[in-house]
């Protein structure tokens, strides 16, 4: 398997056409300066050793060297083999509310960013457990399938915002059912859903979904984000208003979240500024029976950058050794 570890450096390849353009502009400017000195043909005759072709050759050598240098910076890698990896733990699906109400600022900087920070810290503490992420608003979407790749989990998490789901609203039942369908076929008893939301359910049927999920042996834990008193929702530098022009206030609905947790044989915790609530829930989940998971992964990536750097150095040396004057041939010349 071929892999590019740092593909962002490949954007530097866009500079290569500029090298040729810059040299062309240099030649045009030099020709204009020469024309000011007198007749261009006469001036050229006075400089018989000057070679434009060698100048182009130097630019070409430099560009080829730069090309391989950039490839080396991007860290090309080769996967040595496929290997079956075994881990032991539980499977956890996180359901994160990304509706506009999560922009309320009763947490710093807002509900959504505070939740993402808490999830990121949670991922840092996982060992062997498999984790997945579902984001939801008016509909739900699997942002990250169940995995033990914690680095990828944090990358996918960082890309989440309120625009990740185009349909606004909050459907807790759809989010729960999407999570329930996302567990692997290897898990049986060690499955848990952590629902992170302010609890504003615009669709209903959340309790029916929680009951069906619990009957499948999946535990549901809820983290309530927000304040019962309510907060306005900032949108594009203004406050969100309804069709009548009234400021919309989003309130934490603890009642529905407690009921979902009760139906799902889990617990409900209200997020606080200090302890968001995920750590106590993880302690609860760790009491569940651990299960062994098997997955096939690529391992032992071999770095290849040094070969590209060596090729780049070769062409850079060629560029430095190439002069801009014509070769003088004295051998076999008639005197």
Can you describe what's shown?
The protein has 10 helices and 13 strands. Strands 5-4-3-6-7-12 form a 6-stranded mixed beta sheet, sandwiched between helices. Helix 1 runs antiparallel to helix 3, helix 3 runs antiparallel to helix 10 and helix 7 packs parallel to helix 8. The protein is elongated and about 90 Å long.
Coarse structural class: alpha/beta
The tally of helices reads: 10
SSE pattern: EHHHEEHEEHHEHEEEEEHEHEH
Share of residues in strands: 15-25%
Characterize this entry briefly:
With 335 residues, the chain is of the alpha/beta class. Helices cover 39% and strands 23% of the residues.
Helices, strands, pairings?
Elements (H helix, E strand, L loop, with lengths): L1 E3 L11 H22 L2 H7 L5 H22 L2 E14 L1 E7 L13 H15 L4 E7 L3 E8 L2 H9 L13 H9 L10 E7 L8 H10 L3 E6 L6 E2 L1 E2 L2 E2 L9 E2 L3 H10 L4 E3 L7 H9 L4 E13 L1 H17 L14
Parallel strand pairs: 3-4, 3-6, 6-7, 7-12
Antiparallel strand pairs: 1-2, 2-13, 4-5, 8-11, 9-10
Helix pairs in contact: 1-3, 3-10, 4-5, 6-7, 7-8
List keywords for this structure.
335 residues; alpha/beta; 3-stranded antiparallel β-sheet; 10 helices; 13 strands; disordered C terminus
